[in-house]
């Protein structure tokens, strides 16, 4: 855990040149949206569905509160006629919400259209679509959320609509903090470190969290290049020859490159104010003191090395658009690796005059393994594979504090071109063993998802999405299936995306601006301070968090103490309702991957 103190806006996930008109429509709609009330959602019996929809060939499931009914109907939303009738699964108790539920499976229905689910004794479900391209707007909107969190650039009305704002934090005059001083860069010296994304609901920029975030966006392109090229997001750089996902990733990669000390290769941990800004727009967030870069750390330097190694191989194909970038990134990765070898245990220690997020990580084996794996894939040098210590490196669901899973994901994605040193059987086994465990857990769950009570911690929705990403790596290892039917790994991943998009005990889509009911009051300073009723769209919020660490600071109580219901749609709830770049990145990957037809 990092230490830190709508109604549906149809069309708000802008694709291509329709941005201006759609945002104009959204701006008009922001005066009277229906609030997504998490307390009411938790209390009301409701049929829970993926409120965005399903692809025709996908597994399609809903969760139904258990009652006397044993059957359900799929209703055509246009005609009101029953399109299909099915039998509900057996009633079972799901411990995280203490709710007894049945599962409705309507996977055989493939005809595109708009539908509702009907069960006797309950209100009809929210409407949803079945059709190709069901997740295109979601994937594009999740990428576009990063644009809304850019530092150092004005968001213009033609692209941002009602969320337009002046530029904030140019970061062309940043001080070297005493903790970051070295032989050539002294405390108080000035450097320029522009661009980058605001990390979360605050206005600071952090290398460690940027690492897993940028990696996930680059992996989406590396593993699904055609799919990602086809997504038209609508960015200032669109049309420049780069896919939009890479244009957006570059805004942060360019900043990350400025965070490396050119004299020794070490990387500063973060660029920050001394303390968090108030609830104001970024262009007026100037009262917290000078912006500073703080302490070089081993974790930041290794995360940087891994990401730059990935970036080097991705941008090798875009030499015309960004001449010399690939070579620069590889040189930066090697330099960072060398610094980490010489400084293997420099843990971040928060200076007494700095009071922003720390991303402190005392365990560094996973960062060494990840950086070594990426450098091995990019350079082909066997010494890097050995440095990964593959037989000792396990596979886990990724998070910013545990990145060993990213090493195995990359190795699996590139397994066909690895050198003789790589143990392909071990690589595949690492992926499959974790994916199989997630599938098995999902099969024993009344809700049909691989979640238990311990998963409802800070950023639980990112736990869900990163589990789905692991499952999709295993799906990529399988041969194409006859007729393009989804295999078990993909089916389980689909259930996890469904969960985030509304098939959860709250009955809410957890992504702003998407679904019938979605968060209206995320812990996100621009969304709170911009005077627009609707929040900035495309952000997944942290989600149910049994820790409720913000309980004393919120003027309203959580609706429940149960793990899966510990969510509060209020700006005060940084523990359950904040946004963060590392939570949005797996949403991009999973929505893009599941939005493509099965192989």
Sequence-ordered SSE layout with sheet pairings:
Elements: H1 19-29, H2 38-43, E1 53-54, E2 61-65, E3 71-76, E4 82-87, E5 92-94, E6 99-105, E7 113-118, E8 128-130, H3 136-148, H4 157-160, E9 174-176, E10 190-191, E11 205-206, H5 207-223, H6 225-230, H7 244-258, E12 268-272, E13 292-296, H8 298-315, H9 325-342, H10 365-379, H11 382-387, H12 404-413, H13 424-443, H14 460-477, H15 488-500, H16 525-529, H17 581-594
Helix pairs in contact: 3-17, 5-7, 5-8, 5-17, 8-9, 8-10, 9-10, 10-12, 12-13, 12-14, 13-14, 14-15, 14-17, 15-17
Descriptors:
17 helices; alpha+beta; disordered N terminus; five-stranded mixed β-sheet; 599 residues
* Class based on secondary structure composition and strand pairing: alpha+beta
Strand content: 5-15%
Radius of gyration: 23 Å
Mean pLDDT: 92
- For this structure, the quaternary state is single chain
Number of strands: 13
Overall geometry: globular
Strand order in space, largest sheet: 1-8-7-3-4
Count of discrete alpha- or pi-helical segments spanning 4 or more residues: 17
| Largest sheet, strands/sense/barrel | 5 strands, mixed
Helix content: 25-40%
Detail the poorly predicted runs. Answer: 1-35
The topology string of helices and strands comes to: HHEEEEEEEEHHEEEHHHEEHHHHHHHHHH
Q: How widely separated are the two ends?
A: 37 Å
